[in-house]
């Protein structure tokens, strides 16, 4: 008979426990990947645009050639947000690691005044900055595209624009999303323009011949405009026949943009905002985009917390992210504006010490009311109506570009002789300090209206490096929700081990300081989580919520394979090879 001593008994028990733990250990979660490719990836809001960009790359072009083609193709197939009459931002990283960014944001006309949207009592006049001729800022898209082509492109503009011109001539198929939008806005188009336009004919409820899903829309007038630009260059839009048609149209409708405004417009190359989060380097757009600064601030505020341990979309992780967003958006409203008109304390706002001070009064026990949060003390002193696309080429170049008209179809003014809508970016200024714009964002003097000034934006095109190597390019439309959607997508991959497509598709939430509510995508968060947050003092909005961003991104996997993430919330498409 074998005698087991206490010592051996304990030893055997320990072995059994260890063995049991090993057997019960969960296998790593299998990541559901999106579109995979070996060499190139283009992800945009429309299949036609993504395919045109991919063809440019197949024919030997680089990411910068492809981005021009994609941007211009969205002008044709996605007039909801893409337009020659708008502007945007682009962040890039070349294969050699060199980074840069370009600002082709719209500007206020020379005749603009700080009180142009106020009545005699100093109150904002309803819709004046959002709809019609006075809402239009000087467009920057064409200037931006030609500047990119000149500095970074490898193909002539005429060759890049050719497939886009053919798309405008031959047309594109209407999707269900587009049909719904055209039907919704058709009466508004007629009212603002005083007549039916291309995108309202066939979309009224009582129209005899109705346009249906799958029908093609052709825009031969836009094809002619693009052909003139391809033939004559940038000056065609800012000084040539196109410029004169545009100015005559705006003047006839009561607007204030002149030929001089167009001639004076120039896109500006700017130094990107760079920040870190753990082993990531985040490369973002500087002011007049608020995206890069806010993203850097939020990451700095999150870094001391164990987000991975808290888990994805748990009460704790939602609390920390919400409270960091609350403080960053409060600073946004006070400090940020056009850097050519304001001194912006970027280094201080994005420092670790400042982030630590901003989060000092945060507690997991309860919400910090926005009424108790003001902008920070510095020593020494944008909606779905935007579109984003991400590209990585076969050479290792990466671009993130976000462009917009601001509101849906911008000002709703359609230049029928040119074939495109005009923006309503003037609403992104602080029409009156303390008054919200169309996205509920509050502004201050730093973003007041001044002639030739660029309005503040939430657009956040972003490129991320991991351990010094290209890792992700990402961005989204969504107005004020852009920053928070980009943030959560990066966190989903970095901290929660998701693939690009999973990260893009995951449920999102949003907070922007004022109004003091946390918006959740409907039916995506459990009652237990929402009730717990409400008990801590958070005001929840879930029913009838707008879509929180429509993210498009590309992730570089460890073996160099590219994964495209095209947001299921829209008609977005990833194309790669």
Provide structural commentary.
Residues 17-25 and 377-383 have low confidence and may be disordered. The longest helix is centred in the middle third of the chain and has 21 residues, at 315-335. Helix content is 35%, strand content 15%. β10 (386-392) and β11 form a beta hairpin. It has a domain at 50-269 and 409-436. The protein is globular and about 60 Å long. The chain is built from 18 helices and 21 strands. The protein has helices spanning 6-24, 47-58, 63-77, 141-152, 157-170, 176-193, 220-232, 234-238, 241-252, 259-263, 291-302, 307-310, 315-335, 346-349, 352-358, 482-494, 500-505, 527-535; strands at 35-37, 41-44, 87-93, 99-104, 172-173, 216-217, 268-270, 273-277, 280-284, 386-392, 398-404, 414-415, 420-421, 462-466, 469-475, 509-510, 518-520, 540-541, 552-556, 562-566, 573-576. It has 577 residues and is of the alpha+beta class. α3 (63-77) runs parallel beside α5 (157-170), α11 crosses α13 and α11 crosses α16 (482-494). One of its GO terms (molecular function) is glutathione hydrolase activity. One of its GO terms (biological process) is glutathione catabolic process. Belongs to the gamma-glutamyltransferase family.
